[in-house]
Amino acid sequence: MRRALIILCFIAVGVALQQGIIEIPRHWAPWAPLYVDDPITPVTQLKLKRLNDNREACLAALNTVPESELSYTPLADYVPTASCPLSNVVRMQSSSVRFNQSFVATCPLALAWVMYERHSLQPAAEEIMGSRVAQVDHLGSFACRNVYGRESGRRSEHATAEALDVAGFRFENGQQITLLNHWDNDGATGEFLRAARDGACDVFGNVLGPDYNAAHADHFHLGMRGFRLCR
């Protein structure tokens, strides 16, 4: 009897949703399109993962950013090296920040970056550093290699352009900080870097930094695989 009631409840909720009797906010609805300015919720990462094989929907989400606040170029699928084909990728030139150089990223990675920047990075910069981020210095996104460059083992997220390694930030007021020099700082710079790490965990599938191991002492690895792996 109890099981039947539960089933009936699910059916009733499903009908109510279909008929529009119950409305779920777009940012909580897994089936709804993703907009970059929607609040970030636990559903956001699921929505990003759904875009891995849906280029059209991913580009549509990127295009919810005003043109003046994002510069990117959609790229056709290609094979830069024989064992590392790239698909559903774009080249990121700039967003609300400059980059030390443009980079190739899967469309979901580019979208995750833009959402992270707008919802977490810039608010933390203004609150803690008293200035917005003007430039992000990164170590790259694509490298056809295994994890840690080992001769054998699983492929790195960088082999499919699904991760970006961020090494430092330059601010509009002229301040410049790096993970290597400021992660352990007890003042504002260290606080900002930790806030930047924590905010990234809400959007990216995995975030690895100096607290993880020595290999990440000088950068944040912002990757799309997994779900809320934050170290």
Write the layout of secondary structure elements.
Blueprint: H1 2-19, H2 44-50, H3 55-62, E1 71-75, E2 78-81, E3 84-86, E4 89-94, E5 98-106, H4 107-129, E6 133-140, E7 163-171, E8 176-178, H5 179-182, H6 188-200, E9 206-208, E10 220-223, E11 229-230
Parallel strand pairs: 5-6, 9-11
Antiparallel strand pairs: 1-4, 2-3, 4-5, 6-7, 7-8, 7-10, 9-10
Helix pairs in contact: 3-4, 4-6
Domain Extensin-like C-terminal: 57-231
Protein name: Extensin
Quick take:
With 231 residues, the chain is α+β, with helices and mostly antiparallel strands. It has helices at residues 2-19, 44-50, 55-62, 107-129, 179-182, 188-200, and strands spanning 71-75, 78-81, 84-86, 89-94, 98-106, 133-140, 163-171, 176-178, 206-208, 220-223, 229-230. Strand 7 (163-171) and strand 8 form a beta hairpin.
Question: What tags apply to this protein structure?
Answer:
2 domains; Extensin; two-stranded antiparallel ribbon; globular; single chain; 231 residues; alpha+beta; Extensin-like_C; nine-stranded mixed beta sheet
For the termini, the CA-CA separation is 46 Å
Q: What is the share of helical residues?
A: 25-40%
Reading the helices and strands in chain order gives HHHEEEEEHEEEHHEEE
Shape: globular
Strand content: 15-25%
**How many individual β-strands?**
11
Name the structural class: alpha+beta
Structural domain tally:
2
Rg of Cα set: 19 Å
Biggest β-sheet strands, sense, barrel:
9 strands, mixed
Uncertain residue segments = 4-18
Separate helix tally: 6
| Whole-number mean pLDDT | 90
